[in-house]
Amino acid sequence: MIDVRVRFAPSPTGDLHIGGVRTALFNWLFAKNRKGKFILRIDDTDKVRSTEASVKAIFDAMRWLKLDWDEGPYNENLKYSPYCQMERKEKGIYQKYADELIAGKFAYYCYCTLEEVDAMRREAHVNKAPPKYDGRCRCLTYEQIEQKKKEGKIPVIRFKMPDSGVIVLNDIVRGKVKFDNFLLDDFVIIKANGMPTYNFACVVDDHLMEITHVLRGDDHISNTPKQMHIYNALNWRLPEFAHLAMILGSDGSRLSKRHGHMSVLEYRKEGFLQEALINYLALLGWSTEDSQQIFTIEDMKQKFSIGRCGTSPSIFDSAKLLWLNGEKIRSKTPEQIYELFVDWLNYTNNDRLIDNWDVKLLKSAIFLERNKIKLLKDILSLVDFFFTKDVDYREVAVQTVFLSEKSKNVAKFVLTESLIRLSNYRDFSATSLEKYARDLAVEKNIKTSQVFHPIRVAISGRKQGPSLFHMMEIMGREEVVRRINIAINKFFT
RNA sequence: GCUGCCAUCGUCUAGCGGUUUAGGACAUCGCCCUCUCAAGGCGGAGAUCACGGGUUCAAAUCCCGUUGGCAGCGCCA
């Protein structure tokens, strides 16, 4: 079996987005599954839109996602360096092969202006003809070229597409896909500014870097025949191609900002776990025979195969991602959740929020509430009441549990009674406290809920929260008594 | 407009000619558990397998057409 080499080649024109991550992930999984190499290349041939900040953002995102690469930029000692196309251009790599294509009559200089080319396409549209460059510069004479040069015109280099015949792509996930050469454009391979275009640079680099499999979104499928012609003209061996079905937004159109978060970093900010995002994305477009939903990373690496990737596009469902995130969090120990939470606080610059929080109490609180955590950010609102000096009594809770006609007398009684009895209560464990509360209910012939609820609201300010007695246990007697006292003073005097 | 891709519950999907009253997961609904909220357990509803033709003894599964959706058509990647 050949040694697999795959690459992820984002263009640094913004944050890494969901679609990009999916492509990166499938390449990475494939490499891991086949014990091959995963390469990160930066396709920054668009001088105008590429930024250094984007490169950094992509790196950050890849690192957070733990999609580690075997080869990539900023390591100049590797056989295939450099890994940024700008640097490769500086070394004349693309020009060399463009010259070779010209020498072999597979490419030619074109002096047409953008306006002329644009006019051609518009005319084709009107005539219901395939939109393409008409090839008028294909056969310029030596004199004509000299004349253009004299006029100071700067040419682009175009690839000369065959006028007839059919080229067949044998795609791993889609099978045979045929393209009519006549419909293919004489596309630009070197721009007027000397930079290679994507379709050219991609081929040159994939060949030079000995990429064996090209896994990418299916929005690239129409680029593939063009690229294949370049491989053929240069007499290079074709890699295997696999075109993955796209991820769409909730309305079935291409995923974009109006569908919600695009950047993975935004998911991180929301409090999603790296492994949840990875697991969820793997489920879009790939499945196992038994339709397994939850995977560890190791499990995924082991089971992944391109052959089981689907052909139809899938809609990104944030509800399922949210479920999966909760699922992943629940599978962690309280200690791990705490670590994740602290990382998240640091990442979002919220670390000061827990400055005065007792770590032991926080971990206990996380343990009590772990089943409710869907996002790391949820932890804040789930446990904050343990740490506030002044209990924030919620209006609804106070109205229904303390002040309604039906409950106010009982609530007042339960709280004053509890204040006295709990002040000297020895065994402040959950089981013991529960016994106390139940005994009180029996003794006074009231319902247990009439005892539980007022105490819950008194110490937490809310109607909902963790198991009451565990909550009291970790809060401790002193604090519980203090809070009951606050409630009595505030609402019953 | 040209070209290509796709089409199974609302969503992600299993299924690769007979084992299917089409299976699982999310969401949704009900019940149980229960001090609340969750989590968990159990169950329900939800797909004439886009439509129409073939092929075959037999089709969600193979072929053709139609319709619909999406993508590409840049000196963007």
How would you describe this protein?
There is one protein chain. This protein has 493 residues and is mainly alpha-helical. The chain has helices at 18-33, 52-64, 85-90, 93-103, 114-126, 142-150, 198-208, 224-233, 264-270, 274-283, 297-303, 318-330, 334-347, 359-369, 378-383, 395-403, 408-423, 430-444, 448-460, 468-475, 477-491, and strands at residues 5-8, 37-40, 107-110, 156-159, 166-171, 175-180, 188-190, 213-217, 240-244, 247-248, 314-315. The protein contains 21 helices and 11 strands. The strands form 5 sheets. Strands 3-4-7 form a 3-stranded antiparallel sheet. Strands 1-2 form a two-stranded parallel sheet. The N and C termini lie far apart (82 Å). The mean pLDDT is 95. The chain binds one RNA strand of 77 nucleotides through helix 5, strand 6, helix 7, strand 11 and helix 12.
What's the rounded overall pLDDT mean? 95
Low-confidence stretches: none
Shape: elongated
Protein structure class: mainly alpha
What's the total number of strands? Answer: 11
Helix content: 40-55%
Question: Using only CA atoms, what is the Rg?
Answer: 32 Å
Q: What topology, given as strand order, has the largest sheet?
A: 3-4-7
In whole angstroms, the N-to-C terminal distance is 82 Å
Number of helices: 21
Largest sheet: 3 strands, antiparallel
Strand content: 5-15%
